[in-house]
Amino acid sequence: xxxxxxxxxxxxxxxxxxxxxxxxxxxxxxxxxxxxxxxxxxxxxxxxxxxxxxxxxxxxxxxxxxxxxxxxxxxxxxxxxxxxxxxxxxxxxxxxxxxxxxxxxxxxxxxxxxxxxxxxxxxxxxxxxxxxxxxxxxxxxxxxxxxxxxxxxxxxxxxxxxxxxxxxxxxxxxxxxxxxxxxxxxxxxxxxxxxxxxxxxxxxxxxxxxxxxxxxxxxxxxxxxxxxxxxxxxxxxxxxxxxxxxxxxxxxxxxxxxxxxxxxxxxxxxxxxxxxxxxxxxxxxxxxxxxxxxxxxxxxxxxxxxxxxxxxxxxxxxxxxxxxxxxxxxxxxxxxxxxxxxxxxxxxxxxxxxxxxxxxxxxxxxxxxxxxxxxxxxxxxxxxxxxxxxxxxxxxxxxxxxxxxxxxxxxxxxxxxxxxxxxxxxxxxxxxxxxxxxxxxxxxxxxxxxxxxxxxxxxxxxxxxxxxxxxxxxxxxxxxxxxxxxxxxxxxxxxxxxxxxxxxxxxxxxxxxxxxxxxxxxxxxxxxxxxxxxxxxxxxxxxxxxxxxxxxxx
Length: 554
Known about the structure:
single chain, 554 residues, mainly alpha, Ribosomal Protein S8, Chain: A, domain 1, four-stranded mixed sheet, 68% helix, extended, TPR-like_helical_dom_sf, repeat, PPR_rpt, Pentacotripeptide-repeat region of PRORP domain-containing protein
């Protein structure tokens, strides 16, 4: 009996031990599984956090490219392609940011490809399409904008005001009504503004007067366009919607000045209380347009101090363009009266008055004094200084002055013509990235028959700038187009074509102008270039042998 009880006790203890062991093992397994699950969850969170941080950095990079004006189109495209290769465009916001960066560079092709054909096209939303359409608007690519709008509608993406604005800027017609019909979309005013900029001022004035969406900025923009055309009635009608706007009042004053009603412009400006500088300057500009120095001085004395700034004095100085002493008096009084330092625009106005008075020494001293004060010459001031030298008879001194821009380049070329300095004229033309046709014509006029090579270089500069077509080479002729050229420039074009004729049997010169043809013929014959017969009344022909002979002798 005792042995049986002992055996039962041992069995019970063994069973309890096995049960406890099984429970502990189960608990350990559960704990291990929970830890493993927790590790997996932590790993997922870390990966998600990493992706979000990477996405944030990517957005920051695209935003930097969008804002950075120094960023190039190639740099922006490279950033987008790298993001696509790394599969980093994970959210619609990424694609939209990339499209905006491309749009900031005016890359319509790149933005349209990104939203329509790239691997990220499945993440495209309205914002990305709007950015691509903005790029089309900057590039004026109407065809691509129409294609993008068609794609949006096919995908069921409804354009918003931003998308419509980009398409309207690109030249797509008939979208304004659809944009204005958008419900509760604050961006539709952008579509309205884009449409206003494509309308003539009469249409824009009508839209602004009748649209409840138009804001003060839109009214000012349209009123100023009406004012620039001298349309007093439309300017007043547009400005009447914002009677308290000083900029609208200034547009009304400007309209009267541009229409020739200078007295009405001054009276309207003085009727406002108080007078702000923007209004006073509009009236002063009207006085400067007619060169009313006495009237500008009287108006300046009547203005309160709060209505006068540096721009008021600048316009008063331009009204004294033919009164150098009065202009200089205003120049000296500006800084003490306004508290604003003299700038290059005031210096340029003073130099223009001195140039008109042929006071070269005073102009040179004024420029030196401005340089000592750290004020450089802008293009207008440099041109005035060149004219002052040339009009005083010192054309060589005028050529020694620096060329700042197109205005000073024109003035310097005029000095080249006065001094027959063809080499300097060529240097000026070749030093500009985009010379104008008028500048090329003036520079060629500085080249006489002894400087035909210089005239040819001037013509080549025009061809390189895309102003004139490149000579067309056929099987046995070289054709040069001299349309819309002056005779000196056409001579340069012919000489340049003769030098490039190679093995051509003839050089054909298309004139197209019966007034140009006899002048060009006589100039070429004076150079010893014999002309052949042609059945085309608007062309001249130089035989190839004659052309090669001219080049050899040259």
